[in-house]
Amino acid sequence: MTITDGTGVFIKLENTIGKFVNGVRPSGVNALELSEVITKAGVKNTVNTTMFPGQLNKALEEVGSVIVQVSSGPGKHFIIVDGVQIVNGVKYYMTRDPSAGPRGVRQDFLDKAMSDGVNAIVIGK
Predict the structure, then answer these.
(1) Contact present, 109 and 53 (Cβ < 8 Å)
(2) What is the DSSP string of 61-92?
(3) How far is the CA of 11 from the CAs of 34, 38, 53, 73, 98, in angstroms?
(4) Which DSSP helix (H) or strand (E) runs through 106?
(5) Which of 8, 43, 53, 92 keeps 20 to 30 A from 115, CA to CA?
(6) How large is the average pLDDT for residues 52-71?
(7) Which residues are bridge partners to 46 per DSSP?
(8) How many angstroms separate the Cα of 19 from the Cα of each of 3, 5, 11?
(9) How many angstroms separate the CA atoms of 28 and 34, rounded?
(10) pTM of the prediction?
(11) Which residue ranges form the domains of the chain, and what is each CATH number?
């Protein structure tokens, strides 16, 4: 999956595996480590350790993509959120998921998963 900060600089996330200072642990990496690798590739980003749904929507409107870390079974999982679309009156976040590929996620589902605040990386800010 490729991310860009809108300036023409981009990074393919699948190529970042060897760039983590401490490697990729069986439990994965955290948002700060991912942000550091993205920054070193030249892609502007900002970490928010307690992003709520309203902040996600504001970032999507103002900047563009946001990488969000959500609970997934016993662990955590990163997805990229690129925007919001309304389909038949229902709002969906347009996401890219390393496990499931690109898809729409009902806005109320992701909002509930983010209701206590989640780690997020705003791309391009």
Answers:
(1) no
(2) HHT--EEEEEEETTEEEEEEEEEEEEETTEEE
(3) 12, 7, 26, 28, 15
(4) strand 101-106
(5) 43
(6) 96
(7) 122
(8) 16, 19, 12
(9) 10
(10) 0.88
(11) 2-123 (3.90.70.10)
